[in-house]
Amino acid sequence: MAVSDRGAGRLYTTRLYVFSGADLVAPELPEGLKPDKLLEGAERKDLPAEFSGAEYVEIPGIDETGPIGFLTLAKDFPLPRGWEKIPIRKCLPPMIAGERSGPANRLLRACHIMQWRRDSAFCGSCGGPNGDHPGELARQCPSCGRLEFPRISPAIIILIINEKGQALLAHNRNFVPGIYSLIAGFNEAGEDLESTIVREVREEVNIEVDNIRYIASQPWPFPNSLMLGFTARYKSGTLTPDGKEIEDAKWFNRNELPDLPGNGSVSRYLINLWLEGKL
Ligand SMILES: [Zn+2]
User: Fold this and answer.
1) Rounded to the nearest whole angstrom, what is the distance from the C-alpha of residue 70 to the centroid of ligand 1?
2) DSSP-derived pairing of the beta strands 83-87 and 153-161
C-alpha cells in the first residue's frame, strides 16, 4: 500500500528521502563527509518550508524494516540554500557479501517506487487516472479495475574470465570516457537468463562463453532494473566489439586495470571479487 498526501504537511516517518527527477535531494555535506551518510534520508525536522507543497508518499519497507517515506519535488525545483542534488548511484556504499536490505536498499526501493508512481499515473487499459490500491503497493484504475504493480526489469551483468585468468572489460559508448566495465544487457521476453548472457556476449563482443555461474544481484532503479551478476568462462571466438554499443573491449590482468565503475555497483563488486582471487 502507498499512502500519499499532497501538500498537507503530514509526515509519518522521522526520516525521509527527498527526490527531484531521479536524484536524491539532501542537505549539503560538510567537507569530508561521505555521501553514504545520506542513505537513511533527511531528518523531517530539517526540511525547509519550500518543500511543504511536495507530494509525500509512504510505502512499507521490506522485511519489517519499517515504513519508508519520501517527498517528490519537480525535476527543475529550485533548491533552497544548503540543499543539493546528488545522483543516487554516488550514494551507494560498496556491496558486501552476505549483507542485504540495509539502508541502501531502502533508498533504492524508494527511488524505484517514486519513478513507478510517476510512470503509472494513468491506466494502461482505458487511459483513466489511476489511484493507489488501499491494501497493496499497487495502482488501481477506478474506472475499469485494472491493477498495476511496480515493474521490475531483469538485466544480466557478466564477468568473463579467459584461460589466462584475465577479465573482459568493455567501454560502452554511454560510459564516461576511460571507464571500462562488464558486459550487461536486458533479458528479453521468453528468454532464460543463461540465454540472455550467451546472446548479449555474442552480440556485443562476438565471443562464446560457458560455465555460467550466478554470484549476486542488486536493485538498480534507473529506472526499474534488477541487475543479476554472473561469471562465465571464455570458450571461443575472436574478441570484436560491436562498434555500436561497445566501443572497445579488452582482456585485462589484475595489475593493469583501466578506470573502473563506481564502488556501489554490482559490476564493481564482481570485479573486486576477481581482483581478490575469489572468482
Ligand atoms: Zn482503466
Assistant:
1) 27
2) unpaired
**Cα(166) to centroid of ligand 1, in Å?**
53
pLDDT tens digits, one per residue of 261-278:
988 999 999 999 999 999
Which domain does 45 fall in, by range?
3-119
SS3 state of residue 16: strand
Q: 103 and 172, same structural domain?
A: no
The pTM score is 0.91
Same domain membership, residue 166 and residue 270: yes
> With left for phi above 0 and alpha for psi between -120 and 50, is residue 235 left, alpha or beta?
alpha
The pLDDT tens digits of the residues spanning 79-113 come to: 999 999 999 988 888 888 767 668 899 999 999 99
CA of 189 to the centre of ligand 1 (A): 24
Q: Phi and psi at residue 126, in whole multiples of 5°?
A: -110, -10
Asked, for residue 127, whether it belongs to a domain, the answer is: no
**Are residues 8 and 108 part of one domain?**
yes
